[in-house]
């Protein structure tokens, strides 16, 4: 049995991508049978800054990085993997992830979003979701629901502030 406490948190970036209607990009994961929905996110490579990683991850996960960065949530959000994923998910090396979250406004067209651009497909489908629907129970957020509950008030405040500029 793997000792959770002996494992580190994997550095990660998250992307909250708004369209011009104030809706947020959500994708249904390709690798989880339960039909989990989430925002794009991904690991920070060795020697890579979070700012560089977030642009790379956006391109890798949704096939485009036609966006303008509006801001970054202060600090890191940590989450632990559920017990059944310890030693399996994230290469079996981590207890969970520590995430820096970035806020973007999408500047492209929906047709620019291509989920199958890279060999490793993250999402099977995607949609623009009104912020109030994300935590409403319409979308299965799995074990990341608590992260989204902490994240959404902060990014919605950042979005509102950036819209008033």
Outline:
The protein has 165 residues and is α+β, with helices and mostly antiparallel strands. The protein has one domain: Nucleoside Triphosphate Pyrophosphohydrolase (Alpha-Beta Complex). It has helices at residues 50-62, 131-134, 145-163, and strands spanning 8-18, 24-29, 37-38, 41-43, 67-72, 77-80, 94-106, 123-129.
Written account of the structure:
There is one protein chain. This protein has helices at residues 50-62, 131-134, 145-163; strands at residues 8-18, 24-29, 37-38, 41-43, 67-72, 77-80, 94-106, 123-129. The chain is built from 3 helices and 8 strands; from the N terminus they run ββββαββββαα. The strands form 2 sheets. Strands 1, 4, 5, 6 and 7 form a 5-stranded mixed beta sheet that branches. The protein has a 3-stranded antiparallel beta sheet with strand order 3-2-8. With 165 residues, the protein is α+β, with helices and mostly antiparallel strands. The model has no long low-confidence stretch (mean pLDDT 92). Helices cover 22% and strands 32% of the residues. Strand 2 and strand 3 (37-38) form a beta hairpin. The chain has one domain (4-163): Nucleoside Triphosphate Pyrophosphohydrolase (Alpha-Beta Complex).
């Amino acid at each position: 049995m793997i000792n959770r406490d002996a494992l580190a948190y994997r550095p990660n970036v998250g992307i909250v991508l708004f369209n011009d209607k104030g809706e947020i990009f959500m994708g249904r994961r390709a690798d989880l049978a339960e039909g989990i929905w989430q925002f794009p996110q991904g690991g920070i490579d060795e020697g890579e800054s979070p700012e560089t990683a977030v642009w790379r991850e956006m391109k890798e996960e949704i096939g485009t990085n036609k966006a303008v960065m509006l801001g970054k949530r202060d600090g890191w959000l940590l989450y632990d993997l559920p017990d059944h994923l310890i030693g399996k998910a994230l290469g079996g090396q981590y207890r969970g992830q520590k995430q820096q979250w970035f806020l973007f406004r999408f500047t492209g067209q929906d047709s620019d979003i291509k989920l199958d651009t890279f060999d490793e497909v993250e999402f099977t489908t995607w949609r623009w979701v009104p912020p109030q629907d994300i935590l409403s129970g319409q979308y299965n957020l799995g074990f990341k629901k608590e992260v989204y509950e902490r994240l959404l008030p902060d990014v919605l405040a950042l979005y509102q502030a950036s819209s008033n500029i």
